[in-house]
Amino acid sequence: MSHTPDSAVRAYIEQHRAAFLDDLAEWLRIPSVSADPGRAADVRRSADWLAAKLKETGFPTVEVWETGDGAGAPAVFAEWPSGDEGAPTVLVYGHHDVQPAAREDGWHTDPFEPVVKDGRLYARGAADDKGQVFFHTLGVRAHLAATGRTAPAVNLKLLVEGEEEFGSPNFPALVRAHADRLACDSVIVSDTGMWAEDTPTVCTGMRGLVECQIDLYGPDQDIHSGSFGGAVPNPATEAARLVAALHDEDRRVAIPGFYDGVVELTDAERELFAELPFDEERWQRTAHSHATLGEAGFTTLERVWARPTAEVNGIGGGYQGPGGKTIVPSSAMLKLSFRLVAGQDTDRIQQAVREWTAARLPAGIRHEITFTGATRPCLTPLDHPALRSVVRAMGRAFGQKVRFTREGGSGPAADLQDVLGVPVLFLGISVPSDGWHAPNEKVELGLLMKGVETAAHLWGDLAAGPDGH
Amino acid sequence: MSHTPDSAVRAYIEQHRAAFLDDLAEWLRIPSVSADPGRAADVRRSADWLAAKLKETGFPTVEVWETGDGAGAPAVFAEWPSGDEGAPTVLVYGHHDVQPAAREDGWHTDPFEPVVKDGRLYARGAADDKGQVFFHTLGVRAHLAATGRTAPAVNLKLLVEGEEEFGSPNFPALVRAHADRLACDSVIVSDTGMWAEDTPTVCTGMRGLVECQIDLYGPDQDIHSGSFGGAVPNPATEAARLVAALHDEDRRVAIPGFYDGVVELTDAERELFAELPFDEERWQRTAHSHATLGEAGFTTLERVWARPTAEVNGIGGGYQGPGGKTIVPSSAMLKLSFRLVAGQDTDRIQQAVREWTAARLPAGIRHEITFTGATRPCLTPLDHPALRSVVRAMGRAFGQKVRFTREGGSGPAADLQDVLGVPVLFLGISVPSDGWHAPNEKVELGLLMKGVETAAHLWGDLAAGPDGH
User: Fold this and answer.
1) How far apart are the two ends of chain A, measured CA to CA in Å?
2) Any idea where the Peptidase M20 dimerisation domain is (chains A, B) (predicted)?
3) Are residues A191 and A243 in the same domain?
4) I need a labelling partner for A163 at 20 to 30 A (CA). Which of A34, A339, B95, B295 fits?
5) CB A57 within 8 A of CB A151
6) What pLDDT is attached to residue B467?
């Protein structure tokens, strides 16, 4: 069997841990805030730093890719062929840009001056996503050292983008432009988390997303509600009636055809979700909500991970200033988003929303729908061979049963899945307390090293094929 | 009988017409724009001008009343006792302030430099409301001249406020403070219009108004719709569901108790409405609407004049900027107004709205209701003696059958009705084409003189009692 002996991996990691953390700290000192135009040079410095480090790690090919015709933030691509005949090709995805951070936001220390305290490394990007990208560098070296190989057991590719915290505006085009260089058998996304420090998990899917704005037009101008109210259609009323009609009394989405093709949760999956130590009250506090509410017949976790939704992100119309204004407004606006699950098609959903809207509005209300974005859902079946490899590698690193989660959100992973036509797997070691996008972001050093160890085991397992040996 | 001979009235009016119009033009040159703090001195000048003119007309008592402890715009009060034992007391209401106007808004001539052209007097305030207030000055003089009296047949009082175009913020307090001076048997409001130039009408009522803002609070902050959407209550969704629940499928207001006590239209009233030469398409154009829509079983005129309504004046929540933002918003807001008809009580409606709102919101959505204003409806029965006097006086002036209308709006007339406890009647000669609040406001000189003539006939008729002689 081609597995690396676990003890050799651990020994190598232990030996290089200090240098690895020093390097990571150096990277974290670069404030690669993609949303801040004033930090563009830092984002570029971050890409260059990573490119140099990947060269040093041993990747024979390392390139900095421009995006948006040079107007976007650079991505880093690296490639290390296996040399083995028939070795699978794996693409690791992550990002080197970070969220904004300032001391006055509530940071106890400078967000760009990493500090280790009580087994945690505090810095902006420690978990999201520099720490999780970086564990692959020591991971692949540990894999080589423990197996005596000079190249990985898989054809290893890395794509580390620089605009994820900015909505990845240029990412789909980047992936399409370099689809041949990015070709692979599976994608490993290292930009997610696991359930909890004592509960290692693998994410098996993300929801898709369809977003739209519906503009409703009634009278050509705001008109007096005393003179005309009660006798003409009111676009704010009709906007509200649309929203109310989105869900039935069981809070199921009531748009005809919405659930067509939905891959329903199996009993096995529901049991696996139910095994997780879920604390509903604690979840509710995390949501800053004062209650839970959703589709009848499903648990909270099922609702956010595995059920499609319709949500109002914004609504507006008429007078919103202080006091009152007795008008029938001339227009109103809705921003809706639909989270999709496997089996739902973004085009079909857009068409269903179009038809449903048109059918519900009365005469005298003109409308326009603008779809502002569409991301397809992704889901890896629990019995997929590559998923089994990730679970085995993680199980060896953690010495614990690995469970399964999903992500309620939607992400650029789906672009990789769609353009490259391959399954997307998730390998993340961050935990909910890591404070993504919040002050005092940190990564648990113990978990970070488990990430290194998982990566060190993974390439051999994937190369060994479906049975893992 | 005490009627003034119609020909004597006409002769007197004809004789004084030129001087009357010169005086009105002088008043119209004062830009008494109450909404513009920079015009406060002009509003005061307008009050002083009117007070002097009423003195000159013959009112023995004329006073300028301060409002809002001197911070508001002044009102003018005038009183002319009849001297006849048992003469009824009538209070005429109008306002001397005007809407803003500027040449660049589309005026063909200076809005504050009156111009007579093709039998029309163009100026801001020509119809709303200086022209209609002013016809009472010549009216009472014609009444005296034609009857040989030295004082009117009724105890005549005038109250001309200076903040009507600004929402009459100090008017209820003013009326309450001077309730003893304002005591009367009926109020004549000269601040409305009639159906059309060739269709003289008397307005018999205005709708009441209850306004509120409902604030809905969900999560303590905006939260990610991917991570939490579909499993927590969304205040924008709940705001919309409230609005949708305001009406049933027949567009009747669905708040329990809302129609309790409503004085239904009689068959006779519906027939009178139906006799009016109503052009639905033209009305729709005036409304700038592209359709009519309202409570099933009622015509457009019935809907706006005689049926209570629930209208959304404003709605807002979540993200309303460009593009999308995938959040569950933390709050949403509704501004609702309810038009009321006779028999509905503003307090009871507020309570019904409170209870209905509280009963419909799910756990996790906190709400606050703020009522921002309440005006009671007013309605004069068709067989009310004072209304019959107005109809007779107008019929003599116009030489035509006088029909009945109502006003869909709500106004300070209701404050007079409520505080003074008397019926409110409406005597207005403005027509829809007069352009209230719009550029090129005008009054038809022919109609203006009919207003003078109506006023000249009215006092004698009212004094003569129920049978008009």
Assistant:
1) 5
2) 205-363
3) no
4) A339
5) no
6) 62
Cα separation, A255 vs A257, in Å, equals 6
Same-domain status, B166 and B217? no
Provide, rounded to the nearest whole percent, the portion of chain A with pLDDT above 70: 99
Residues A256, A391 within the same domain: no
Q: Cβ of B277 under 8 Å from any chain A Cβ?
A: no
Q: Let me know the angle formed at the C-alpha of A415 by A86 and A267, rounded to the nearest 5 degrees.
A: 85
Q: Are both A119 and A78 inside the same structural domain? A: yes
Instruction: Name chain B contacts of A372, Cβ cutoff 8 Å.
Output: 323-324
Side-chain-side CA neighbours of B70 within 13 Å: the count stands at 0
pLDDT in tens, A373-393: 788 899 998 999 999 999 999
Chain A, residues 179-218, CB within 8 A of chain B, namely: 207, 209, 211, 213, 218
Q: What is the mean pLDDT of chain A?
A: 95
Q: Following CA atoms A386, A388, A393, A395 in sequence, which dihedral angle do they give, to the nearest 10 degrees?
A: 160
Q: Which two tokens stand for residue A258?
A: 């919405």
- Reduce the secondary structure of A148-192 to three states and give it as a string: CCCCCCCEEEEEEECCHHHCCCCHHHHHHHCHHHHCCCEEEECCC
Chain A residues with beta carbon closer than 8 angstroms to that of B294 = 230-232
* Number of folded domains that form chain A: 2
What is the helix (H) or strand (E) element at residue A22, kind and residue range?
helix A6-28
* Residue A308 tokens, joined: 């499609």
Calpha distance A329→A398 (Å, rounded): 60
Residue B241 placed within a domain: yes
Of the listed ranges B80-89, B360-369, B432-441, the one predicted with least confidence: B432-441
- Which structural domain, as residue segments, surrounds residue A253? 208-262+308-375
**CATH code assigned at B243:** 3.30.70.360
Q: Is A313 on the interface with B (CB under 8 A)?
A: yes
> At which residue do the structure tokens 């692979």 appear?
A184
Asked if B15 and B164 sit in the same domain, the reply is yes
Question: A406 pLDDT exceeds 90?
Answer: yes
Task: Note whether A337 contacts B318, CB cutoff 8 Å.
Answer: no
Whole-number Å distance between alpha carbons of B418 and B426:
16
Question: Is the preceding peptide bond at A129 cis, omega within 30 degrees of 0?
Answer: yes
Q: Which of A83, A231, A55 is nearest to A149 (CA)?
A: A83
Are the beta carbons of B329 and B233 closer than 8 angstroms? no
Same domain, A321 and A393: no
Average the pLDDT over each of B190-194, B243-247, B340-344, B408-412 and give the range with the smallest value.
B408-412
Do A389 and A321 belong to one domain? no
> In this complex, do B232 and A287 lie within 8 Å of one another by their Cβ atoms?
yes
Task: Choose one of B375, B404, B433: the last residue of a domain.
Answer: B375
User: How many CB atoms sit inside 10 A of residue B347's CB?
Assistant: 11
